[in-house]
UniProtKB/TrEMBL annotation:
The keyword Hydrolase applies. GO terms for biological process: carbohydrate catabolic process. It comes from the Bacteria. NCBIfam families: PRK09852.1. This is 6-phospho-beta-glucosidase. Its EC number is 3.2.1.86. Signal peptide: none annotated.
Amino acid sequence: MSNLKPFPKGFLWGGATAANQIEGGFDADGKGLSSADMVAYVPKAERGAHSASIEISSQELADILSGKKQARFPKREGIDFYHRYKEDIALFAEMGFKMLRISIHWARIFPNGYDEQPNEAGLAYYEEMFKEMHKHGIEPMVTLCHYETPLGLTEKYNGWLGREVVGHFLRYAETVFTRYKDLVKYWLTFNEINMITMHSPFTGGGVVIDRVPQAEQENAKYQALHHQFIASSLATKALHEIIPGGQMGCMLARLPHYAYTADPQDQRLAQWLNQQNLYFTDVHARGEYPKYMLRHWAENNVKIQKELSDDAILKQYPVDFISFSYYVSLTATTHDNAERVGGNLMGGVKNPYLQASDWGWQIDPIGLRITLNDMYDRYQIPLFIVENGLGAYDNVEADGNIHDDYRIAYHRAHIQQMQEAINDGVDLRGYLSWGPIDLVSMSTSEMSKRYGFIYVDIDDDGNGTKARSRKDSFFWYKKVIASNGADLS
């Protein structure tokens, strides 16, 4: 490490969150319901050790809305950031954050998604939050839609499957750009946009997939995704018109795949899985669908509906930078009987060279350097890491301390590989850890799957004082930021 150039001056260290996982106040001050508010907590014993429970059927949704299904909905509760954001931002500032990624809960601004006029209480809430960040010298990065499609759009259009939602999203985007044009420079359109087709169309786009005939469901996912691509491009156009110097990024759940063996069949499978992951950023950054996906659609009878101007819109308004989450690498094989493991919403074959987290996610810091190099070689535009972290069980000692050396080791190893990538020539602008404060897990709605440098006293059943306390990693990350990555000890 001593022979490496330091992190660049002005590197943006910080953390990343999502409104639906931290805010709470799900019905406060005129907020409407969203897709996230419908996700019930399922105890681990009922869902299996690590499986996610974020898809929803039309019958389950009806039962939730009618009250027939009784359950806890942890994302409605969050960690009460809605009322405690000043306290939490002060803690982030104590660590020295240069940037904090949050999302605006769309239904807090337009309660149904299709409303003609915005909710002033929601607009005022985020305005005060951004001012609080600036008071502490923290630059906001704002995600417009972080798994938070207003439920009204699901009920009226089946979420992003309806082309009309593009216009409603653009109204929302223009509203917040105009309101916060002096407070927010960095924006993202959709969080982990690849999840709408790769994992959960309800989480990714408010689409209740069983409302679509079985034979048309795969087509429906790609159609909803296309509408998000168009909305993203039009929002990018609007941002550049409303906020001079504003920067729009896309956001991908980067899931790099290795081939399990040197068998060319395994090599080709890994290549194809990587192409399936990267075609989302291909569209955002290059402004067109790659030909390998056009072949895939032709061979699988996928036929999306486009308006005449769509191709021109994608080409004319690409993103300014690419951001991504990185937690794991995955391994693929065509061979039978290989042991399988979990991952960030997706699993793969066990890589014998890697350790795994408490949730079975394979820990691969070198994979981050590979990812950064591959993505920068491919796109040649600035990159941000906007999610990276370790979900683990934490133990509170009798004296209240939390000794999370495992979390420090995880971040240290990944930051070392970031510096390697920067020295390789990658234009990496920032590192936002996920999540800097304990929050409700997106995939399992647990609190025991803890990522934070800050502990929040809430358990999986929602019990606790909500008190915040500093883990050992809090003081370590503070030192990292103060030294601009030079001191990782």
